[in-house]
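Reviewers of the previous submission asked for a worked example of the structure-prediction workflow described in the proposal, so we include one complete record here. The input consisted solely of the amino acid sequence. No template or homolog information was supplied to the procedure at any stage.
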Amino acid sequence: MFARADGTLGADGHGYHADFDARGATLMVRDPRDDQQSVTLTLRLADWGRGNARTTVGAARISRSAVDIARYEHSGITEQYQLTATGFEQSFVLSQCPPGGGDLVLGITAEGPELHAPPRTARQQAIEFCVGDSPAFRYGEAVAFSRGSTERIPVATHYDGNGRIELVVSAQFLEQASYPVIIDPAVGPTHLVSGSGFNDLNPDVAYDPSADTFMVVWQREFSTNDRRIRVQRYRRDGSMISGIGPLTGAGFATWPTVGYVSGGGFSGFYVVWSHTTGLRGQLLNSSGTGLFSGVHQLTTVPPGTRDLRPAVSFRGGEMLVAWDRTPNGSATPQAIMIRRCTLSGSPMPNVFWGNEHTVETTTTGYVQRVRMSRNHILAGAPLTWLCWERFFTNPAPGDFDVRTAYVAVSAANMSFGQAPAGMPGGSAIGVDERRPDVAATVHPTTPQTLFVWQDEFDIEAHRFNIFGPVGSPFSIRDTSSWDTSPAVGAGSTEFSVGYISAPALNSTAQDVYAARVLLNGTVLAPHSPITTLSGPLQRSLRASSVVSGGGNQPNGVMFGWLVDSDSVGVINDIRARFYEPVTSFVSPFGTACSGPGGTLPTITADGIPYPGNAAFAIELSNAPGGSLAALLISNTLTTVSIPGAPGCTLYVDFPLLLAVPTITTAGGAANVSVPIPAGAPPGALLGFQWGVFTPGYNAFGWIASDDLDISWQQ
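From that input alone, the workflow returned the following structure tokens.
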């Protein structure tokens, strides 16, 4: 964020620019239809109040609080915007309970010359403002909370279709809350992986730990006989990275899948797809600047035979590829196949592949949708668990089951640690168990594996280790809703399970949700929204795994999925969003008091405060140079004036958990490391504030910064 001479503020992030002036907050992003153009959205608090008693809000002076916060001071309510990499957190702070009765309504005008947001339902989790049919901005997912409390209360979001947003906070929460209260919606660009007049299908997503980036791949249909593979990279924060778009040219390329591979001087994403001649693959370097190999022909089939729906698993430069094969003359796939490949050579690696092996074959019914964890990480032979879907013709009218096997594949041979068998809990006669997925944690000898599948309209799961099933199958989601198409990703210490969910009486209102699953099978945060559009069909969900060996990472995955842009599914777009099962909230609060020479000590976070981040630190800036400073840390909060220090407020309460002394630099800066243990429990809350020793400046001899509150939620 930067200040201008006219008193306005500006800010730049990944893919957007923001201006803050008397009109309100104006966000500018690239036009999703034309990268050379931009579109704008201006937000302004218009009125607020309880029941029918509304206070109209006029122009307010804009001020800068801390390094990256723009603030508007209105009568009775403060509106502020905290910058993030991909947008900003808009928040409203109430210092006391608003007068009157009934729910609190905040009326916000939303203006964009070319934007529209078609109404969907009376209750909206998020609003997407579109240019034509392409989403450009996302607003909503608001919560309300009392400062000092870790409980977040959902805030209803309404849109009238004509430029007015209303955030509605329940009267019950207002009456029971302790103040100050913060109302916090998010606003920023919508990250649409693909949006066009073409039909986009079959997304997949993978993670590159060396560059801390994700890649989404998908299939685009230009015509019936022209289907191509496209790819796009993303940062962890969800912002797009330029470079590499089309992967294949005109032809017939379908069913892409992607994983991370490294070894022998190369590192990157390896994409495998189906072609009329068999499976093909290509390595893309981690920088995203181009291809790192030629096209590799991984399987070769005669005309009429089809190798489809590949899955990949990697360890260093080794790769396992599994797929289903449809023989010439058959309408359905009859075999699950697998082979081991090795990437070798630099700078342009070659692929050396072993023999093809048949995992399971059938002459009645069919087999399809094979899945492997993206990492076969056991020392020694590349062992991995597989799962797939099998349709049995008997008993009539037929039955879908989930099958699984444990295989070791060498260049010449394949052996079974467990021969193909029905999944315990996923192979009941007369019950359709479908669309399985699997992920595994990183461990050289004892990785933990989680299988998930759709059981009728519920989501089920089963834990495995290298010896087989652990415990009993358990439910991720078992309600009257229609829950389908699960996808699972592994983090460092747990799993994230996504699924598509729709009300039983409205199966077209499909939304994407996720659950957090611990290694012991405990299901937490069982119905966390990933995207809740409540209107277009959403399907074909896939998940990455963050499975690098390092433990100093947020534990989350990126989901990719397909959205029908109309009611009959003629045109589809691809979406992606990063999901962290344990998320952190960084909430700046209060104001600093000035010191000698007009210095204004400011507190900021250095890094993302997630459990397990040993490099997290708290920074001080704009303080007197060469002075003693102390970082105060407490798990209880307060707001009291400091005697003998006019204008100074204490925001962290005694007894303190910690007080860390340091000396500021000549420029008035300081940095204190605050490593966060991996086991920091959800619901934890810490307050941070700097005190700076200024003898003789005031009676107390100290000045204080503003406050930073940090909490973790599921």
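The chain has a mean pLDDT of 86. We consider this example representative of the routine output the project will generate in years two and three.
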